[in-house]
Design goal:
This protein is mainly alpha-helical. The protein is built from 11 helices and 4 strands. The termini are far apart. This is DUF4371 domain-containing protein.
Length: 276
């Protein structure tokens, strides 16, 4: 368990510092509270001076009656609990997308695609070779700029329910590696060691190159891109509630504008992508 303290120094500036790392045998709220109190006690810090606590949304942390935050509030009523805003935004995006069947199918297929490519060291190497060859080709015809830190080799990123911005990062990595992934899948379809591998690669290739998959890939990149700006802002060390509310309002306005006026540009981009 990592413990981070947020405090105001003698000059009146807000500081946030990693404080300690504690090994715990249990993750129930009573055990975690005892360990935190022991750490504070060893450093002569009074629990009564706590003015806030922030954890994720797990029931053992945020439980209204028996969660860790509730146990601290019972002894220190000013230790107000804040559920990480960026974490809440991530959970909201995931839950919302799961309620829309095409979106749920898209992320399920995306996970299958990543599992197929990433589960084999050979296919990972093939993807890197294909990526390097394509970068060299684009540089040769002056379609890519060169310079320090540019055109670095990346990997397919796996979306995670609780990892901030992971779905957006996963889709962005898919855009970057799209052509190379198709090349690797075609190679597996033609030369895979087993019929199961060839069949699975063929199924993944079919849905990956379908118009519906490409359409949702573009649309989710745009939508999650709007939310990503908000997510990064909510992770700032210094953030006041009024500015946060303004950022939420701006994000909602951008999403509404995209819904009202974004279809023609989206369709054009998808068509261009498919024709390339």
């Amino acid at each position: 368990m990592a413990i981070v303290l947020r405090f105001v120094d003698k000059q009146g500036y807000i500081r946030e510092r990693f404080f300690d790392s504690v090994h715990v045998h249990e993750t129930n709220s009573l055990t975690l509270k005892k360990e935190i109190c022991d750490v504070l006690s060893r450093h002569n810090l009074s629990m009564q001076n706590i003015r806030g606590q922030g954890y994720d949304g797990a029931s053992n942390m945020r439980g209204e009656w028996n969660g860790l935050q509730a146990l601290f509030v019972q002894e220190c009523p000013y230790a107000y609990y804040i559920h990480c805003f960026a974490h809440r935004l991530q959970l909201t995006l995931v839950e919302t997308s799961q309620e829309v069947i095409p979106m749920e199918q898209f992320f399920t297929n995306l996970s299958l695609l990543i599992n197929l490519v990433s589960s084999s060291c050979k296919r990972v190497d093939q993807l890197r070779v294909a990526r390097a060859a394509r970068i060299a080709e684009l540089i040769a015809i002056d379609e890519l700029e060169t310079g320090r830190g540019q055109n670095q080799m990346g990997t397919l990123k796996r979306p995670g329910t609780t990892r901030w911005g992971s779905h957006f990062s996963s889709i962005c990595s898919l855009f970057t590696e799209y052509e190379d992934i198709c090349s690797v899948l075609i190679d597996v379809i033609n030369y895979g060691n087993t019929s199961t591998q060839r069949s699975e690669a063929d199924r993944v290739y079919d849905f990956m190159t379908s118009f519906d998959f490409v359409l949702i890939m573009h649309m989710m990149r745009d939508i999650l891109g709007f939310a990503q700006v908000l997510s990064q802002a909510l992770q700032c060390k210094s953030q006041d509630i009024l500015n946060a509310l303004k950022l939420v309002s701006v994000t909602k306005d951008r999403l509404q504008s995209y819904r009202d006026n974004g279809w023609n540009e989206l369709f054009t981009n998808v068509k261009t992508f498919c024709d390339a």
